[in-house]
Amino acid sequence: MQSSSRKELRAGFLGVTSVLLDDGDTRLLTDGFFSRPALHRVLLGRLAPDATQVEQGLARAGVTDLKAVLVGHSHYDHALDAPEVARRSGALVVGSSSTANLARGYGLPEAQIRVVMPGEPLVFGAFRVTFYPSRHVLPNAAAGEITAPLKFPARARAFRDGGCFSLLIEHESGKNLLIQESAGFVRGALSGIRAEIAMISIAMLSRHPDSYRRAYFSETAGAVGAKVIYPLHYDDFFRPLELLPRPMPRWMDDIRPVLDSLERWAGERGVRVGWLPAWQMVPLD
Ligand SMILES: [Zn+2]
């Protein structure tokens, strides 16, 4: 990846809802999920961060130092690798008390774990990050809290969501982003918040009618007045992330009708739908 000039905000898509943000001074990463274990391992095995995959993922993304790993909920396809990413990069793992217990169970030092207070901003360089309470899309395969330090390796269902958040990322340049890691919402939760860019999970929207999808778009991207939407969480995370991400198999989650709903909703409002290329940093404008 090219190194970015100072204060020019760039973003890179690293799969599922892992997004790297870099302004030339400070790097933040959501989730940092690189292990992407195969489906049979998720269903039958126990999961732990794959150190090789994490190392290669960080190298491929050009990450050397990182201020924070921001975790929107603690399901394995979001939070599994967060403590390993933090261990390698010196970053702080930021998230719910469940995410904290996951990181603790992995042996990450307390000094690198931060439990968020919803609505209370955290400052990292020129970034200001605020977590707002949200909801997980249904079905939720592992609802509830991780109430004690998680023992690794652990079954996928042990990675309970621990509460879901919408992440507001404000930058000194004036660019604000909303990152929504699951396609659930709390009505009105984001009213009064402005972000011109919305990166939103579209996973599992195929299981919901158009009316739900439209409500979701309205309560996330719509609520913050986004001018551009970048879909997240559409790639098949049981396989490695390719340059052109491969979508989920249709029998699991068919994104075609979801994108129809999104294009229609966005078209009615003059909102652009864009795609972040995988493994490349692009300017956010
Ligand atoms: Zn989830």
TrEMBL record:
One of its GO terms (molecular function) is hydrolase activity. It comes from the Bacteria. The keyword Transcription regulation does not apply. Gene3D superfamilies: Ribonuclease Z/Hydroxyacylglutathione hydrolase-like. Residues 15-233 form the Metallo-beta-lactamase domain. Keywords: Hydrolase. The keyword Endoplasmic reticulum does not apply. Pfam families: Lactamase_B_2. InterPro entries: Metallo-B-lactamas, RibonucZ/Hydroxyglut_hydro, UPF0173_UPF0282_UlaG_hydrolase. PANTHER family: UPF0173 METAL-DEPENDENT HYDROLASE MJ1163 (PTHR43546:SF3), UPF0173 METAL-DEPENDENT HYDROLASE MJ1163-RELATED (PTHR43546). This is MBL fold metallo-hydrolase.
